[in-house]
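About this split. The held-out portion is used to measure sequence recovery: a designer receives only the structure tokens and must propose an amino acid at every position. Recovery is the fraction of positions where the proposal matches the reference. Here is one held-out target exactly as it appears in the evaluation file.
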């Protein structure tokens, strides 16, 4: 690896760490308002959706419904089961099985 690349990566890591550490240190003795805590509870779900939804909806940068259908079946079932049961393991296992079944039936 070139020295410049390593220095850039280290610099970005340092800036990221310092901005987070500064915010944490500034707020460590002050509780967050209830409204901010409620809002922050939604951040992990929003990040997960931002990571998962493009993979469910797009194939090669475009929507291709025949190739998309098995992923949608598995993804929607997983989402529904997680909301219903709150058991991530069961939901993901059922979603994978649904995806594989739909893949076999539709292709």
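Reference sequence for scoring:
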């Amino acid at each position: 690896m070139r020295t410049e690349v390593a220095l850039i990566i280290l610099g970005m890591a340092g800036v990221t760490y310092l901005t987070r550490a500064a915010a944490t240190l500034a707020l460590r003795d002050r509780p967050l308002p209830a409204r901010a805590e409620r809002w922050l509870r939604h951040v992990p779900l929003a990040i997960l959706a931002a990571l998962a939804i493009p993979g469910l909806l797009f194939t090669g940068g475009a929507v291709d419904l025949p190739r998309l259908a098995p992923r949608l079946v598995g993804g929607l079932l997983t989402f529904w089961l997680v909301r219903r049961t709150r058991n991530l393991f069961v939901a993901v296992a059922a979603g994978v099985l649904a995806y594989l079944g739909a893949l076999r039936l539709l292709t």
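Annotator remark: The chain has a mean pLDDT of 87.
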